[in-house]
Design goal:
There is one protein chain. Helix content is about 25%, strand content about 10%. It has about 230 residues and is α+β, with helices and mostly antiparallel strands. The strands form 2 sheets. It has a 5-stranded mixed β-sheet with strand order 2-1-5-3-4, with helices on both faces. Strands 6-7 form a two-stranded antiparallel ribbon. The model is unreliable at about 195-205 (pLDDT under 50).
């Protein structure tokens, strides 16, 4: 067993666990986009970022790829983590504003502005389709090609794959293929219609080191029932 501290609580998890697995097993929610149970960890989207360490040496890491280590101190919802996640979601919205998955994540994390130019990309290079095809469908019909700005996903040399079974698993798991519910105003990627715009929580200034990590928020649920 590995002993570590998550959000101020001393916990023990099995050897070989990642920080993401440890946190979720103990009930601490961490959002993910490129990570899906049953597929290998990739760490592409960085949405699962958490803060480890203390003081000036504290740093942000992707929890899906970082191993749970003895004596590690983890914060899953500090002010620094929340700012990083919101920035990541803004960038994802700029790349793929038509994605319902990304839009729902942005609404759930209180993203209320879009400061970057929308590109309307059809791929965010999360690698989900590649891992699904290789690890679950056992086909390896598609993969990454090129580097940097020219990096893309497809078949080798753009030739139709003779091992592709047209199963549709790549489209099923792709967040860019899941179109948002309302797209009549494509210039407005932020919807927010499903979000609670006035949560009755305490002042967030009191939680610089640790924001509310409850999912759903207890205070919001109480307010909803009134």
């Amino acid at each position: 067993m590995v002993n570590l501290t998550i959000n101020g609580l001393d916990v023990s998890v099995e050897d070989g666990s990642t920080v993401l697995e440890a946190a979720r097993f103990l009930g601490f929610p961490i959002p993910t986009l490129c990570h899906v149970d049953g597929l290998s960890s990739y760490g592409a989207c960085r949405l699962c970022v958490v803060e480890i360490g203390e003081g000036p040496r504290a740093k942000l890491v992707s929890s899906c790829t970082y191993p749970a280590e003895e004596g590690l101190k983890v914060r899953t919802a500090s002010a620094r983590v929340i700012r990083a996640r919101k920035m990541i979601l803004e960038l994802l919205l700029a790349s793929c504003p038509q994605s319902k998955t990304i839009q729902d994540l942005a609404a759930a994390h209180d993203v209320r502005q879009q400061r970057f130019k929308q590109e309307y990309e059809d791929c965010i290079l999360c690698g989900l389709c590649v891992r699904m095809c290789e690890e679950q469908m056992m086909a390896k019909a598609i993969g990454f090609r090129g580097r940097g700005e020219k990096r893309s996903i497809g078949t080798p040399f753009d030739i139709k794959s003779d091992v592709c079974r047209l199963c549709g698993a790549c489209m099923y798991i792709c967040p860019a293929c899941q179109l948002r519910c309302t797209y009549n105003e494509p210039e407005k990627p932020i919807c927010g219609a499903c979000a609670n715009l006035a949560p009755p929580c305490l002042e967030k200034d009191q939680f610089d080191d640790m924001m509310c990590y409850m999912d759903p928020c207890v205070a919001c649920e109480i307010q909803k029932d009134k």
